User: Fold this.
Amino acid sequence: MPPPITLRNATEVDLPAILEIYNDVILTTTAVYSEQPHTLQMRQAWFNERRSAGFPVIVAEADGIIAGFGTYGHFRAWPCYRFTVEHSVYVHKDMRGRGISKVLLTEIISLAKAAGMHALIAGVDSENSVSLQLHLKFGFEQVARFKEVGFKFNHWLDLIFLELIL
Assistant:
C-alpha cells in the first residue's frame, strides 16, 4: 500500500527537491520545453516571483520525501488576463503512477477557485497521453493545438492547450 500523501505550502527548504524533480523532467521528458537544467538560484528566483505575485507553490509529501509539486502563475502578464492562470504539476520519477498528480491538481484547482480565478490553462505536449487523460478527467477541454512549436530530443513537438472554466 502506497504511503499517504500530504500537501502543504512549499518553503525554501523544499527548493532542492523541487529542483531535482524539475531537472529530471527537463532532461528526460517533453513535459517542459527546455533543454538545460536549472540551478538552485533559478528555482529560488522562480519561487520568490510566485510568492510575491501571490501564487501558490505546493508540495506533496509521501514517506517523508517531496513526491511532487504544483503551482500556477500568469497565463499572460497583460492586465485583462488577470483571472486566467496556467498551472504546472510535476511528480518525482520514482513516485509516478501513485495518484500524486491527481492530488496536486485537485488542490491547484481548489486554490485557483478560492483566489477568484476564472480559467485554468494547461500546456501539455501532445505525446504526453498520461497528462492529457488526467486533464480530461478533471473536465479540461482541449482548446488549441500548436503544431511543431517545440524542438527537443531531435524532433518537433506539438503543444496542446487545455482549459478549465472554474
About this structure: Residues 89 and 101 are 6 Å apart (CA to CA). The chain has a mean pLDDT of 96. The radius of gyration is 15 Å. The longest helix spans residues 100-114.
